[in-house]
Amino acid sequence: MPNIDSMVASEGGEEGGEEGGEKRDKQGRSSSSKVDTRYDIIIIGSGPAGYTAGIYTSRAKLRTLIISGMLPGGQLMTTSEVENYPGFPNGIFGPELMMNMRQQAERFGSTVLDDEVIAVNFNQRPFVITTPSESFEAESVLVCTGASPRKLGIPAEQQFAGRGVSYCATCDGPFFKGEDIVVVGGGDTAIEEATFLTKFGKSVKIVHRRDTLRASKILQEKAFENPKIRFLWNSVVSDIKGDKKLARVTVRDINNENEQEISAGGLFVAIGHDPNTAIFKGKLEMDDKGYIVLKNQTRTSVEGVFAAGDVHDYRYRQAVTAAGFGCMAAIDVEKWFAEKKAERKKQEIPKSEYIHERKQQL
Ligand code: NAP
Q1: Of the listed 40, 114, 168, 310, which one is catalytic?
Q2: Which of 65, 154, 161, 233 is an S-S bond match for 211, by CB 3.0 to 4.6 Å?
Q3: Where in the sequence is the domain holding 11, given as residue range(s)?
Q4: Active-site residue among 36, 115, 144, 171?
Q5: d(CA 273, ligand 1 centre) in Å
Q6: Does 166 reside within a domain?
Q7: What is the DSSP letter of 198?
Q8: Which pLDDT does position 78 carry in this prediction?
Q9: pLDDT tens digits, 138-164
Q10: Residue 13 lies in a domain
Q11: Once rounded to an integer, what is the mean pLDDT over residues 113-140?
Q12: Is residue 357 part of a domain?
């Protein structure tokens, strides 16, 4: 088992470990059999943050394993066209974008394993990361598990996801030109998204379960002044209907249980996100909502463990910002290895020689 010293001695650990003979399925994805169990870095999660980090760490010659999670490619795998990711003037389909990122990470040497992490042990070094079938060791870990949009929890929601039901107005708004749009929620996101959606939709109705908004006053005022926005207070969406595409939603008044059907070409659910951090509870510092707290850029409360993307960022939540955070974390990981290497070198040089060397440097 390589420790940090042997690894930094090999410039990011090109030696050690078993041979990684990968098996691939028809989509070119690797399977868990015969995957090496020792790495310099394990990246948990495979959205834009995880894959971008993998591109950088593998180009830095760090032995990199990306464990993709149950939805390889993350949230963008459930989106249709992505129009706001730079570099694609005509847009690109979410799954295609993610497959490109994956291939780019693999091209530089990242191993991608389609499996789920069920446990982490940060109390020992190397760290131990466990999937249902195997345990892996790594000197450093980068958490890119993202956040999941909260769902309404009504049966047809899943059926119409990507066919009228969306969880991101910035991503999907322009696809709803001239439509009647319904937004659910009363927080900053819902109000900001509703205002944004008035640029495209014929009408925007905000369905909120109370009679006051949680959103900041300035956003509220803008929305109240907007002639395209109407509020349905004390109400919830109780059903979603359509044929191939969403056409109508049923709204229930929670005070009197009355239901009405309203026309809706688009339904934007903006009722918050939950960070995917359950396996890190009690192991990494988190805020009261479960987002990972970062210190010193992308470092977490455990030395050698880093985090990037929506798992710590509840504000921007864009593919491009997640990719940017992934890049930043990978650079920090690389620097961390360099620091460890320098520390080790300092420990190896006898004190007298070190003082002599320092004097010469000064
Ligand atoms: P949020 O503040 O948690 O608001 C979620 C909204 O959804 C609340 O109005 C809540 O209703 C409602 N809701 C929750 N569960 C529901 C359910 N099952 N059914 C129906 N409605 C439900 O989430 P957010 O708006 O996404 O904001 C998250 C964070 O990002 C906040 O700190 C926010 O300030 C920040 N943010 C800031 C900006 C900005 O500054 N421009 C923009 C976006 C987000 P109740 O009010 O009744 O609880």
Answers
A1: 168
A2: 233
A3: 4-148+273-347
A4: 171
A5: 8
A6: yes
A7: T
A8: 66
A9: 999 999 999 999 999 998 999 999 899
A10: yes
A11: 97
A12: no
